[in-house]
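Aim 2 progress update. The chain analyzed this quarter is reproduced below.
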Amino acid sequence: MTTKNKTTSIKTTSMLRCALALLLAVTPGLGAGRAQAAINVVATVPELAEITRQVGGRNVSVYSIARPNRDYHRVDALPSDVQRVARAKLIVAGGMDLELWMTALLNAAANRNLNRGGSGYVDASQGIRRLEIPTSQITGASGDIHVEGNPHYWYDPIYGKFIARNVLRGLLRVDPAHAAEYRANYLRFNAEIDRRMTGWKAQLAPYAGRPVVTYHKNYAYFLRRFGLREYGNLEPKPGIPPSAGHVSALISSMKRDGVRAVVVESIYPTRWANLIQRQAGIKYVVAPYSVGALGTRDYFSFMDLMVSRFKQALSR
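Predicted structure tokens:
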């Protein structure tokens, strides 16, 4: 982290702590240990929140700091988010340097149990076989490179099961009284993933090895799971906006190599995909960035639509 980022983080933490103090003063009973029907869980992003609901069931009340269909790398925490973190018994984070903005919230909450390594902290990435770990020096020109690898692992439904397992472990630590229910919910979630995987694989199996162009490197884990190949990205480097020169070169390469599949994540503009469509005659499809995008309601409908949109792109 640069000196500038450290200074910004310190200032942000101070502001959030002041906000928390004000909220504690004006919110009756906050932090007073009132009995609740469900334990409060704060997840960093909607996918982790949804899987936590699947495992926690009726015994948890889950809130996601990041909102659906918003860039998870750039989240502005609100004073009310500080309040939610302060009231939480469990934090579920994606890890892998995705949510650097979460540090200020945890510092403001000043609860050791919620810090990394604490009983109330879940790193949902535990056990993931990570992709794209940098092997060379990272500079300002590298783009949004994550030193721990690509953090968008929840697009792989098998890793959805890994997330559920990590959430289960966290819930067992903070709420052992409901252990039997949590374990039953976890097994039910895993069984549903396994049941649906058969159909998901069958839909994409005919396109194994086929190349796909995406806007950002969000779908790397999804592509690996289903035997597809990332050909390129509309961004010249992660987090660097597309340029006319880069997209023009990409179009030439796609024409040369016969690449016909373009998938744009739903948070990004379609201007450059439209350019590819006009110049190369390749129609693009838009796939969901998050649970809650494009009408998806839960993790299962999210993955259903992901598979459907990739099949649509590949079948042209």
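Strands lie at 39-43, 60-64, 90-93, 121-123, 211-214, 229-233, 262-265, 284-287. The chain has ten helices and eight strands. These observations will guide the mutagenesis experiments scheduled for the next reporting period.
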